[in-house]
């Protein structure tokens, strides 16, 4: 992914990676990225997580003859990062520990994983809010485990916004999925499809357009051409298949245009991504999760990066989930995590 190459200067604070679900592929892909030397400039990446869990993930890869040992260096603070020997994995201890998870069965929903993952995310936001790290890259969490731990958030996106507010920086956030060929920003994210339809309001579409427009300078497109997908088949077919395009989406586009935002549409959702992919638009605004994510993921889960727009700090993640079906087998692909790290550095550099 040429345009995602790391460009971080030595002066930029490091990037922190959160553990994710301890029984999913998160620890494995973190270890794999370090083993392969694909985490960016030396000494510029650390992990918040349970060392025992990361040691088990390292052992998974070691079972393959071609993989060397990865020493794990536990550090007390980000300031200790330069003390970590080259080739070691720097790990900051989380505010809640659970080494027992290193004995738990791979690929299972466990409330302790939810609690540990949440602690790592909270700790990372604290670091970012203090400016100790330049970006957060999150390994995937299992949303049922998060819920089982009593967390009220349906995903990182919502949790990061809430945690940012607790640090005095409230944020109106949106999810963007990006790969080499497509970028899509979602009006609604983690809710039932019925509810998503209710949440497609004039204000929601307009604020998403504003957030997408304002964020685009960070990825190098200060005046993005934003295509807005309709909600209904054929963007409503002139009202025959639904009136949201006429009554909600088109007025929001007009309001955005009056503010100088290059918003266009609404366009038929089934063809708008094809048009963006061939260069007609820079970003597609999608009305709901699967409308936006299917086209990006279909191009390859190894390429996509999830970016939270609207936060006061940079957050990226791989575009895939915990992949419980392959966790612990040493077959997980770390490419999307590597792309997320590179994207995080690039965005952090532009925000500095
Ligand atoms: N950023 C995050 O924390 C995300 C979390 N999730 C969560 O992950 C959990 C599982 O979600 P699923 O829908 O099953 O999606 P998934 O992405 O975990 O898995 C879908 C399929 O892709 C494969 N896959 C995914 N990533 C892979 C990789 N790096 N290497 C090799 N194969 C890979 C899996 O083996 C599986 O067959 C859910 O709780 C979901 O909410 C899903 C997406 C993002
Ligand atoms: N499908 C992407 C996804 O659900 C990731 O959500 P989040 O945890 O980044 O909010």
Q: How do the helices and strands line up, and which of them pair or pack?
A:
Elements: E1 15-18, H1 26-35, E2 45-48, H2 51-62, E3 72-75, E4 89-92, H3 111-129, E5 135-138, H4 143-148, H5 156-166, E6 174-178, E7 183-186, H6 193-199, H7 202-216, E8 226-229, H8 244-258, E9 263-267, H9 269-277, E10 283-286, H10 289-298, E11 305-309, E12 314-318, H11 335-351
Parallel strand pairs: 1-2, 1-5, 2-4, 3-4, 5-12, 7-10, 8-9, 8-10
Antiparallel strand pairs: 6-7, 6-11, 11-12
The structure holds 1,4-dihydronicotinamide adenine dinucleotide (NAI) and ligand LD2JLWAY.
Residues 155-157, 293, 306, 317 line the site of the ligand NCC(=O)COP(=O)(O)O.
Enzyme class: oxidoreductase
GO molecular function: 4-hydroxythreonine-4-phosphate dehydrogenase activity; cobalt ion binding; magnesium ion binding; NAD binding; zinc ion binding
GO biological process, one term: pyridoxine biosynthetic process
Task: State the main characteristics.
single chain, 352 residues, alpha/beta, Isopropylmalate Dehydrogenase, 2 domains, twelve-stranded mixed β-sheet, 12 strands, 37% helix, 15% strand, elongated, disordered N terminus, binds 1,4-dihydronicotinamide adenine dinucleotide, binds the ligand NCC(=O)COP(=O)(O)O, magnesium, 4-hydroxythreonine-4-phosphate dehydrogenase activity, zinc ion binding, NADP, NAD
């Amino acid at each position: 992914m040429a345009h995602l190459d790391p460009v971080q200067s030595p002066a930029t604070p490091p990037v922190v990676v959160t553990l994710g679900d301890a029984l999913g592929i998160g620890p494995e892909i973190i270890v794999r990225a370090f083993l392969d030397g694909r985490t960016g400039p030396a000494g510029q990446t650390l992990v918040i997580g349970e060392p025992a869990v990361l040691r088990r993930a390292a052992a998974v890869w070691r079972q393959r003859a071609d993989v060397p040992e990865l020493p794990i260096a536990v550090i007390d603070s980000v300031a200790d990062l330069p003390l970590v020997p080259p080739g070691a994995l720097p790990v900051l201890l989380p505010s809640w520990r659970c080494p027992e998870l290193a004995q738990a069965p791979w690929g299972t929903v466990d409330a302790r994983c939810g609690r540990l993952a949440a602690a790592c995310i909270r700790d990372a936001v604290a670091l970012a809010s203090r400016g100790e790290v330049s970006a957060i890259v999150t390994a995937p969490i299992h949303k049922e485990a998060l819920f089982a731990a009593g967390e009220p958030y349906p995903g990182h996106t919502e949790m990061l916004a809430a945690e940012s507010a607790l640090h005095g920086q409230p944020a109106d956030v949106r999810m963007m999925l990006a790969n080499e060929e497509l970028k899509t920003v979602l009006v609604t994210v983690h809710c039932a499809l019925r509810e998503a339809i209710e949440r497609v309001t004039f204000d929601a579409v307009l604020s998403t357009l504003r957030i997408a427009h304002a964020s685009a300078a960070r990825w190098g497109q200060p005046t993005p051409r934003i295509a807005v997908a309709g909600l209904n088949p054929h963007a409503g077919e002139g009202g025959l298949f639904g009136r949201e395009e006429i009554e909600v989406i088109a007025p929001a586009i007009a309001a955005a245009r009056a503010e100088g935002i290059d918003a266009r549409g609404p366009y038929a959702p089934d063809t708008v991504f094809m048009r963006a992919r061939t260069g007609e638009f820079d970003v597609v605004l999608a009305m709901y999760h699967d409308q936006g994510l299917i086209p990006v993921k279909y191009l390859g889960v190894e390429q996509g990066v999830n970016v939270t727009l609207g936060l006061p700090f940079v957050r990226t993640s791989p575009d895939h989930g915990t992949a419980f079906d392959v966790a612990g087998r040493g077959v997980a692909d770390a490419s999307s995590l590597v792309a997320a790290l590179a994207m995080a550095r690039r965005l952090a550099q532009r925000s500095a």
